[in-house]
Amino acid sequence: MSGAEEAGGGGPAAGPAGAVPAGVGAGAGVGAGAGASAGPAAALGEAAGPGIPDEAGLAGARQLQEVAGDSDAPPKKRLRAAETAEAAAAAAAAGSGKLEERLYSVLCCTVCLDLPKASVYQCTNGHLMCAGCFIHLLADARLKEEQATCPNCRCEISKSLCCRNLAVEKAVSELPSECGFCLCQFPRSLLERHQKEECQDRVTQCKYKRIGCPWHGPYHELTVHEAACAHPTKTGNELMEILDEMDQSHRKEMQLYNSIFSLLSFEKIGYTGPTCRRLLQWPLAS
């Protein structure tokens, strides 16, 4: 083996004896080969690490971008550098999301995919369900005369098999949530009180609603409206007409409620025969 081959280390740049051009030393060849082979891998390792890339990782990413945009570089090298830079950028973007957003996907209900507002239950394998979805699953299975199962792992669930996850409930209560009126953020445990008692933009109604005032608007405008409200100055006959309309509307609502309640009070509503003849008449038919 010649000296040039020994110095080249048998790499892909090494050729037959005497094929090395004059003026190119073995040290230069080794340095170029090592830099070309280790550059992308080292830069990717630094940029795609679990933490924030350090200055060396950022420098490597910039070097990859320069190589990808160099028109004089070989096509394969430019393509490989572009792919490596895209992978590093994707890894950096995946690790730069807000903590609240990542916790949202971890602590959300596996059924409705929303953060629980009250109790949180878990199956024997640890899958989370909010109280509403948990009760709905049990009720639906009971109506079908089946065993309720977890929608993720299909293990059996019941009030005795499932338990509340207090740690998740406390973690969810500390996550920030946006007020629907003023768009400010508060911990979820304080949001309800803020919206009902403290928010100056919450929707309120006039105190003369009982005598027919239809106004509703933000709380900070309530005092001005009540001072200029015309309903307290109406005559008795005008107020009687307004109250009669309100009574009629209330009676219609109660009639609809009673009809629906009577319908749901039936033990069974069955259909039989090829024509699906109704066994029971619907109360709403009248």
How would you describe this structure to a colleague?
This protein is mainly alpha-helical. The protein is built from ten helices and nine strands. The strands form four sheets. A three-stranded antiparallel beta sheet has the order 2-1-3. A two-stranded antiparallel ribbon has the order 4-5. It is extended and about 85 Å long.
Keywords, separated by commas or semicolons:
286 residues; disordered C terminus; mainly alpha; three-stranded antiparallel sheet; two-stranded antiparallel ribbon
The main pleated sheet reads as:
3 strands, antiparallel
Calculate the mean pLDDT score and round it.
73
Helix and strand pattern: HHHHHEEHEHEEHEEHHEE
Specify the structural class.
mainly alpha
Task: Compose a concise summary of this entry.
The chain is built from ten helices and nine strands.
Question: What layout of secondary structure does this protein have?
Answer:
Layout: H1 3-8, H2 26-47, H3 55-69, H4 75-95, H5 99-107, E1 120-122, E2 128-130, H6 131-143, E3 163-164, H7 166-174, E4 176-178, E5 185-187, H8 188-198, E6 203-205, E7 216-218, H9 222-228, H10 236-264, E8 271-272, E9 277-278
Antiparallel strand pairs: 1-2, 1-3, 4-5, 6-7, 8-9
